[in-house]
Amino acid sequence: MRFTTSLAALALALAPLSAHAADEKKKDDAAAAAPVPPPNVSVTKHKGSFGGQSIAYTATTGETYLTDKDDKPVAAIFATSYVKDGGDPKTRPITFLYNGGPGSGSLWLHMGAFGPKRVVLPDAKDDGAPPYPVIDNPESLLDVTDLVFIDPVGTGFSHTLGGKDPKDYWGVSADAKSIAEFIRIWLNENGRWASPKYIGGESYGTTRSIALINELEGSYNDVAVNGIILISTILDFGAAAEAQGNEMPYILNLPSMATTAWYHHKIANPPATVAEVAAQARAFAIGPYAAALLKGNQLGAEERASVRAELARLTGLSEAFVDNANLRVSPGRFYKELLRDRGQVIGRLDTRYTGVDYDKAGEEPDNDPSFYGIDAAYTSAINSYVRGDLKLKTDRHYVTIGGVNSWDWKLADQRGRDGEVYVNVAPYLGKALRENSGLRVFVGQGWYDFATPFFGAEYSLNRPGFDPSRISFHYYDAGHMMYVRPDDLRKLSADVRAFIRG
């Protein structure tokens, strides 16, 4: 799948509006004229061991209503919160988490990384058929923070009410406004305005986090935030746009091609570690490679030959292939070409995963083996857990992914020609860092993630206007969802736990 201007990491490029989501819309339309029932909520008590501590906690799962200016309910935001029993609301941190898409529920971070339970599935292999065990998760962050997992409108069990058009929430700015409103309501209802606060997301969820910090701290009615957790980061969509004439994606993708080629033993005389090959590729990407691309038709034969040879070495592709691609290998072609001699394609979300296409002659893969290799297990896990352990009773389908369409990528305060075509939320973060001296940023990236390449995250956050002393980068030996690898789940948990402890 080609990475276009809009990030379709977990939604738009991977799945159209699903049949069950369409069924839910029909239900919503039929219910529009009916009286709005009270929010559907379930509260249960639990105990567990997290970070080596025994914790008793209360789980609250269900709906929070957003209202219009006339106090009429217009949207039901589904969320699951875990609050330590007896915690001091003045000192106990609270962390709000969500996934991306746009159009993805929060089940990935919830059931894969930070919730009190997690689903077990094989690493870098297809998850096969059920059952998929759901077990206690000692890596949950409940020893250091209370947790709230949020599903935006159109995802999970979240939906609009009273005839409200869900598309009113489907846009960078509109989505951030709705999540900010939910957070304010949650703080009110739970008496947590004094608590240290963290927000965090994965994939498009990182975009949401930065748009959200602008909504929370960008007005006089501030909700000050202590930290932002960015996992698999995408902030600058212009730099990632695969459009003819835009050379930046080739530069930013090259280090991920090199780490992937290293993983699959496609680099001759490879360095000892993935970090070393990443360093080599970064230096080449912003040096000789960038210079060659920017010269375009003025690139001389001798320089072209030199760049072609090093590009082929780092990517594991033949010189003939990279030459035929004009030194510009798209991600889709790379997924298909790297292991063509083995009859395999590689994943996009996690290039460690491999799959087999209908035939070996195509230009790009039929599908992403790193997505179809995990989706069934997570969908099963969230439904069985919420309806079972958390005792939520609902006849709604949980929208795992693909529940939104027609996303509005224009930023509310960046209209005009440039704002229409270049979507970049990173400046919001620079502003937030300058105006909140206590704000810190955690950035977690997988070496083998092509949906949100690590060099793209580094580029976005290495521009003028950012305080590098308050931004910490962490790297993992997996892809987009690094927590699917058990060792990296433990590392990610420890890294985020240390970040929250400060």
UniProtKB/TrEMBL annotation:
Signal peptide from the UniProt entry: 1-21
GO biological process, one term: proteolysis
InterPro entries per UniProt: AB_hydrolase_fold, Peptidase_S10
Sorted UniProt keywords: Signal
Keyword Heme (UniProt): no
Name of protein: Peptidase S10
Region Disordered, annotated ranges: 26-47
Record GO terms (molecular function): serine-type carboxypeptidase activity
